[in-house]
Protein 1
Amino acid sequence: MYLSNTASQTLMMNDAGHVPANTTVEVTDPLIQSLLDAFSTAYFRPQVEAMGNYWGNFCGVDQVFDAGTPAAEWVATAFANATK
């Protein structure tokens, strides 16, 4: 939590050039702002449909954390779907 608060993220952005993960950080560097703009409008992974068919199975970990699906069961199902 400490590393992701506004003050820490601002420090890392200004001193180390990191793109802040915290959306409350005021971005003043035009290069970092352009990266944030690209992240919000771009589709940067996967680049081909076949990769989306594979990696798309491993999205939705909220099923484990929020819905209580056992992690091993969730991974086994995702793997089975990804390797069809």
Protein 2
Amino acid sequence: MTMADPYDQDDLAQLPGGAQDGDVPIEGEPEGVEPPRRTASAQFAVEAEVGSQAALREAMDPANQSLADALRLSFQVLQGVIVVLIALFFVSGFRTVQDKQSGVMLRFGKIVVVDEQRSLEPGLHRNLLPYPAGEFVIFAVEDRPVDLKEAFWPNIPANVTLQQAIDGARVTAALQPARDGYVLTRDGDLAHLKIVGEYEIIDPVQFVTSIDENNADRLVELALQRAVVHVTAGLSLQELVDVSDDTKERVRQSAQEVLLTLECGIDLVKVHMPDTKPPLAIVKAYGELQNAREQAREQIERARQNAQQTLIAVGSNYRTLARMIQRYEDAQQLGDEDVADELLAELYAVLESDESSGEVAQIIYRAMAYETEIESTLGNEARLFASILPAYREHPELVCTTRWFEAYGSVLNREDAEKFYLPAGLGSLHVIISGLEEIQEVRQRRGLQRRERDALEASMGGIRPFYRRSKDIEPGQARPLLEVTPQGTIRPRGTDR
């Protein structure tokens, strides 16, 4: 079978007007004129003897049937794909927002208001236009952590522990800014720290319109780095190592100010500093440094307490006395003697007044008591000798004899004095004296009284409770200053006090 003209001569004769196959009427040409016939592109030649068009179609049916089946199957597959795409197209307009999530709905790239809110609440939401005309931007708004543990921490190899790095650290090994992280403190010291934070998105619309969600963590990290550098620059090394809640809050506020300036809808909730250390080279000796600083603080505190106790012991008006003394010393340094004398007089008046208390009052009391003692002893004797001086100049032997007999009598008149009479001219004599029992009792009683008096003086800070003034002394008569009452107390002799 070969390709030939599909129409035989009988079929051509049946065409209207006797037109041949392939003839196309041309507008403007006169009817009855046959146009030129094109060359056939394909010819069917049937070698077998087929005498009609029906026989030819019967020969072509298997090929046409196969092509029709293939086209029909392809069309069915195409219909299924179209149905699936249409279903996906409409389903893409629905989106569920989980808890701790939020976002926005976009329509042709613009934010759509949903339930009078531009941000999406948790639940199922439907966009009237599926993707790509309608779109959802969903993201987590809570519990978003950031970790800057490497930003300000020394570079330690993975196979080396922190303690091994500390043990192997050397003072001569310098830090490399491109490799090691650190901060600079107020005193110029270096320090290392780890810092982690947690933030949340409080304004999803502002967040979407300001930054890309993939860059949110990096933005917060940069804000935290800036805050750490600024805050630690105002802290000492000790304050940074002993990190407090106030320091963490200052870092958080400083980073939050940066985020507020950027208007990105991010709120930095928490900041933690799990570890802070000085340079590893001095960590080994840091324990001793810490102890030394602690001891220094204790010594300073003890010194302050001692100073306070000393000032309180001076008296309640120690501030007034300190100012007056300072003014007096300033006047002396300036050489103003008149002002210095006036200030000294005022100072004496304050010291001797009832306003004085504490150790100052005790010192003044002892001084006045001592003055009274001098007045009552040496002063009285000086006046006594001054009174007998004229008689001594006229009759010195008589005065000396009289004074000797007075001293002799004052000794022999003591109740604890024992008298022994020996014959004259006896020479040397060794005598064993036991003494009278009455005299021994008197001596024991006087010794007990003396010890009680000494104990009383010691309990009162060495201040003698009683002194005799010159008016209490009778010239030419010596007597004990104190006596013991029947109740066992001590009082000035001859008084009822």
Protein 3
Amino acid sequence: MTPAPLLHAWNLNLAYAKRLVADIPADMMAVQPAPGMNHAAWVLGHLACTADMLGAMIGTEPVCPPGWTALFDWNSSPSADATLYPSKETLLAALEAGHDRLASALPGVPQARWTEPTPSEAIRAFLPTLGDCFVFVMAAHENMHLGQLSAWRRVQGMARV
């Protein structure tokens, strides 16, 4: 796998995420206009924790505190209780740090590793190799959640980005 195109998409995603949350006031980060809807705080935290999950597969140190896993993993449910979530600045800093760590480490991953089985049994059935996992998570998964955040903005009456 040549990481350059994947890293380009990864960097575009981070820039888009920053634009999506730039004008969201702190008191709106956990607003849920519909029950269970992924809100801005959850999306940022989920993406930061997902970057940590990928990083663990290639040996990078995590950026998210251990307590974030239960709050933001794929089995979690967003809550409208804003007190459960770190600040927008903290979440965005973690997302940026996670992006930076992966972007720095990815070029050093030996080519042969990309055909290894995905380390996570929970996702191996649909993402069988490490390469499949990285491409899906860094491109499709992140874009899907950024799309949710874009829709969340529109429901709030905010302008498109």
Protein 4
Amino acid sequence: MPVPHVIVLRAPGTNCDVETAHAFEHCGARATPVHLFRVLERPDILKDFQILCIPGGFSYGDDVGAGVIFGGQLRSRLGGALREFLQADKLVLGICNGFQVLMKSGILPAGAERWPATDGDPPDATLTWNDNGRYTARWVKLHTGDSRSVFLQGIGAIDLPIAHAEGKVVARNDDIVNEWRKRGQIALCYQHDDNPNGSTADIAGLADPTGRVLGLMPHPERNMYATQHPHWTRRPQDSDEGDGMKLFRNAVEYFG
């Protein structure tokens, strides 16, 4: 099977790049953490990779909003290179702060269809503060529904941890959410009675219409092994794998 090469794109304040790279490597990919500044210097470096992953953390300290500065740099300085990447048969994954970056840059929810958008176009959706007004870190139960996401194939229900303050998905209107449903873009949802941030339609992750771009607030790289789950001693021990493993394996096997 061909070995896909993953660029784990980090910026000042990113803090989940090492474990995210490990997750891809464990599933058979070659993962290389690369600083955003190196890509800004040479955008054509993206041609060397088949998967782009933006991991979690607090890029630029979330000083003007989570993912805003990082997303603005992608939009204003890497528009051409990223559009070419998005239009190719390649994958993009944004985890937590990475999801925020994909949303703030405008890559999600439309993917390559309307990216980069002109400055006058209003965004279809954003990620904003949790309803409780504070950073929240705990485990949640999720389901995938009818998602077209490459990353979530064969996954029905999944337990993952969250760790965020600005994870609430808010759409401009109900028509947008209905369109997401029709196009299979609602990739991941919180269990209805366990929505930790008040996200519209319990949305925890969004895909683009092709299914090749995924952004999610929970951290799959933090549940790669069964023993990482807080209730692991009370769960069936039929596998040493955690729920997050399949997501990374799906990405690698897409290129098989």
